Structures are given as structure tokens and as C-alpha cells.
Amino acid sequence: MDCHSIGWRRHALERMFERNITRAQVKQVLKSGMIIETYRDDQPFPSKLIYALVDEVPLHVVVAQDTMTAECYVVTAYIPDTAHFESDLITRIKI
Fold it and tell me: Dihedral (C-alpha) 10, 14, 15, 20: value to the nearest 10 degrees?
């Protein structure tokens, strides 16, 4: 994902700390990850769910992007689980 700069939401930083996910890992997801879901109606900016394997750990990052400035805002980051995703950790389980 092409981000001009990255803004870190307080919620994201708190969750990252709780989950032992570093800013460097999140930046790697943004740089090399695969967009697996898009949320065009999110406000104030559309957001995306991005997946990447970083340091052999699967990570999901939700990021919103201001299309005018290309600034990205990290909303949350987590390690996906098979309670919510198929074994590929990419495909969301349909309920």
C-alpha cells in the first residue's frame, strides 16, 4: 500500500502493545501485504484489511487512507485466528 505517511490511532497502538505487534511489523504489512478486504463506506476514509506474513507470524492490519493526501491511519493490527478466518487466514468464515 502506498502511504505518504502513517498516523497511529491510539486504539491501534494499545492493541498492538497488548498483542506484541511492533510498528516495524505493521509497516512491513503495509509495504508488502495483500489487500484481502476493502471497506469503501468506512468514515472518515475508506479502509482496507491487509494480510502479510512477517517474521513467520501472520498479521492483519486495518488501515484507512485519505485519498487526497495519501496519509494512512492504522486502525488496528492483530494475529488472525481460525475462529474468524479459514485455515489460509485470508478468507473470512461466513456465518
Answer: 130
Helix (H) or strand (E) holding 10: helix 10-18
What domain range is 27 assigned to? 5-78
Angle at 9 between CA 77 and CA 22, to 5 degrees: 45
* Residue 18: all three cell numbers together: 497488548
Q: Is 80 helix (H, G, I), strand (E, B) or coil?
A: coil
pTM of the model: 0.92
Mean pLDDT, residues 44-49? 95
The total number of structural domains that make up the chain: 1
**Integer Cα distance of 2 and 72 in angstroms:** 9
